[in-house]
Amino acid sequence: MVIPLSTPATEGALLVPYPATLDVPHELVEHVAWLLYEHRRARNTRWRKLGCFGQALLTLVHLRKIETFAQLGAGFAISQATAWRYVDEALEVLVSWAPGLHEALTGPR
Protein backbone atom coordinates (compact mmCIF):
# COMPACT_ATOMS: atom_id res chain seq x y z
CA MET A 1 0.00 0.00 0.00
CA VAL A 2 1.30 3.45 -0.92
CA ILE A 3 -0.42 6.57 0.44
CA PRO A 4 -0.01 9.99 -1.19
CA LEU A 5 1.08 12.76 1.13
CA SER A 6 -0.15 16.21 0.21
CA THR A 7 1.63 18.96 2.07
CA PRO A 8 3.41 21.95 0.57
CA ALA A 9 6.77 20.63 1.75
CA THR A 10 6.47 17.18 0.17
CA GLU A 11 4.49 17.85 -3.05
CA GLY A 12 3.53 14.44 -4.34
CA ALA A 13 5.70 12.32 -2.04
CA LEU A 14 4.40 8.88 -1.17
CA LEU A 15 4.28 7.28 2.25
CA VAL A 16 5.04 3.58 2.46
CA PRO A 17 3.88 1.98 5.73
CA TYR A 18 6.22 -0.49 7.42
CA PRO A 19 5.99 -2.73 10.49
CA ALA A 20 7.71 -1.35 13.57
CA THR A 21 7.83 -1.85 17.32
CA LEU A 22 7.15 0.63 20.09
CA ASP A 23 9.26 0.66 23.24
CA VAL A 24 6.44 0.87 25.77
CA PRO A 25 5.10 -1.93 27.99
CA HIS A 26 2.23 -3.96 26.53
CA GLU A 27 0.39 -3.38 29.81
CA LEU A 28 0.41 0.38 29.14
CA VAL A 29 -1.26 -0.10 25.76
CA GLU A 30 -3.81 -2.41 27.39
CA HIS A 31 -4.51 0.13 30.15
CA VAL A 32 -5.08 2.97 27.70
CA ALA A 33 -7.23 0.63 25.58
CA TRP A 34 -9.35 -0.17 28.63
CA LEU A 35 -9.84 3.54 29.37
CA LEU A 36 -10.90 4.07 25.75
CA TYR A 37 -13.26 1.10 25.94
CA GLU A 38 -14.96 2.55 29.02
CA HIS A 39 -15.16 5.96 27.34
CA ARG A 40 -16.71 4.51 24.18
CA ARG A 41 -19.14 2.39 26.17
CA ALA A 42 -20.26 5.37 28.28
CA ARG A 43 -20.83 7.43 25.13
CA ASN A 44 -22.36 4.49 23.22
CA THR A 45 -20.21 5.25 20.19
CA ARG A 46 -20.63 3.56 16.84
CA TRP A 47 -18.24 1.15 15.10
CA ARG A 48 -14.80 2.53 14.27
CA LYS A 49 -12.03 1.54 11.90
CA LEU A 50 -9.61 0.98 14.80
CA GLY A 51 -10.58 -0.85 17.94
CA CYS A 52 -9.64 0.43 21.38
CA PHE A 53 -6.25 -1.32 21.36
CA GLY A 54 -5.42 0.11 17.93
CA GLN A 55 -6.43 3.61 19.02
CA ALA A 56 -4.36 3.30 22.19
CA LEU A 57 -1.36 2.11 20.18
CA LEU A 58 -1.81 4.93 17.65
CA THR A 59 -1.86 7.51 20.44
CA LEU A 60 1.18 6.08 22.19
CA VAL A 61 3.10 5.97 18.89
CA HIS A 62 2.26 9.65 18.41
CA LEU A 63 3.38 10.56 21.92
CA ARG A 64 6.53 8.42 21.94
CA LYS A 65 7.79 8.84 18.38
CA ILE A 66 6.31 12.28 17.56
CA GLU A 67 5.07 11.02 14.20
CA THR A 68 2.91 13.32 12.10
CA PHE A 69 -0.75 12.57 11.61
CA ALA A 70 -0.02 11.77 7.96
CA GLN A 71 2.57 9.19 9.06
CA LEU A 72 0.19 7.76 11.67
CA GLY A 73 -2.60 7.55 9.12
CA ALA A 74 -0.36 5.71 6.69
CA GLY A 75 0.89 3.31 9.34
CA PHE A 76 -2.57 2.47 10.65
CA ALA A 77 -4.40 2.60 7.27
CA ILE A 78 -6.65 5.50 8.25
CA SER A 79 -6.92 9.07 7.03
CA GLN A 80 -4.84 11.88 8.48
CA ALA A 81 -8.02 13.48 9.87
CA THR A 82 -9.10 10.24 11.54
CA ALA A 83 -5.65 9.84 13.09
CA TRP A 84 -5.94 13.36 14.51
CA ARG A 85 -9.43 12.68 15.91
CA TYR A 86 -8.36 9.37 17.47
CA VAL A 87 -5.32 10.93 19.16
CA ASP A 88 -7.34 13.93 20.33
CA GLU A 89 -10.02 11.69 21.85
CA ALA A 90 -7.47 9.45 23.55
CA LEU A 91 -5.67 12.45 25.04
CA GLU A 92 -9.00 13.76 26.34
CA VAL A 93 -9.62 10.37 28.00
CA LEU A 94 -6.13 10.31 29.51
CA VAL A 95 -6.45 13.87 30.82
CA SER A 96 -9.79 13.04 32.48
CA TRP A 97 -8.15 9.98 34.08
CA ALA A 98 -5.06 11.91 35.24
CA PRO A 99 -5.84 15.65 35.42
CA GLY A 100 -2.19 16.67 35.87
CA LEU A 101 -1.34 15.01 32.56
CA HIS A 102 -2.56 18.02 30.56
CA GLU A 103 0.10 20.23 32.12
CA ALA A 104 2.71 17.51 31.65
CA LEU A 105 1.90 17.20 27.96
CA THR A 106 1.58 20.92 27.20
CA GLY A 107 4.44 22.15 29.38
CA PRO A 108 4.54 25.08 31.79
CA ARG A 109 2.47 28.11 30.90
Task: Give a quick precis of the structure.
The protein is mostly helical.
Question: How does this model look, in words?
Answer:
The chain is mainly α. Helices cover 59% and strands 4% of the residues. It contains five helices and two strands, in the order ββααααα. The protein has a two-stranded antiparallel sheet. The N and C termini lie far apart (42 Å). The model has no long low-confidence stretch (mean pLDDT 83).
The share of residues in helices is 55-70%
Largest sheet: 2 strands, antiparallel
Provide the β-strand percentage band: under 5%
Instruction: Quickly give the structural class.
Output: mainly alpha
Could you tell me the radius of gyration in angstroms? 15 Å
| Regions with little confidence, pLDDT below 50 for 5+ residues | none
Give helix and strand order, one letter per element, not per position: EEHHHHH
Output the number of helix runs: 5
Number of strands: 2
Strand order of the largest sheet: 1-2
Distance N terminus to C terminus? 42 Å
How many domain units?
1
Shape: globular
What's the average pLDDT?
A: 83
